[in-house]
Amino acid sequence: MASENRPTQTDRLDDDDYPAYTMGRAAEMIGTTPAFLRALGDARLITPLRSAGGHRRYSRYQLRIASRARELVDQGTPIEAACRIVVLEDQLDEALRINEELRRGRDDAPAAGTP
């Protein structure tokens, strides 16, 4: 009998962080080369997980990050600068998300002195 806490195959397909794609498939999906994905790994923008055989495996989230870096590089941005821009954009998105959560929490809180 399967445990209710164990992820199913369907759960993994819905998981943005599940390393589902091989390097070749990942490169094909975002229209780049495996060398570009390796360069992003060397720049520490994305760190693919490794299969039992040692092959790089990428998640959908990593592919979105790599795709954004590719857009910037295609526009003439050096790869190191593109990686830094992507990191800063990701940090800004996270800060805005946290800010919105805090704002909602403050708006939902009862006013001081209200039972």
From TrEMBL:
Occurrences of domain HTH merR-type (ranges): 20-88
InterPro entries noted in UniProt: DNA-bd_dom_put_sf, MerR-type_HTH_dom
One Pfam family in the UniProt entry: MerR_1
Domain of life of the source: Bacteria
Protein known as: MerR family transcriptional regulator
Source organism per UniProt: Streptomyces thermolineatus
Lineage of the species this protein comes from: Bacteria, Bacillati, Actinomycetota, Actinomycetes, Kitasatosporales
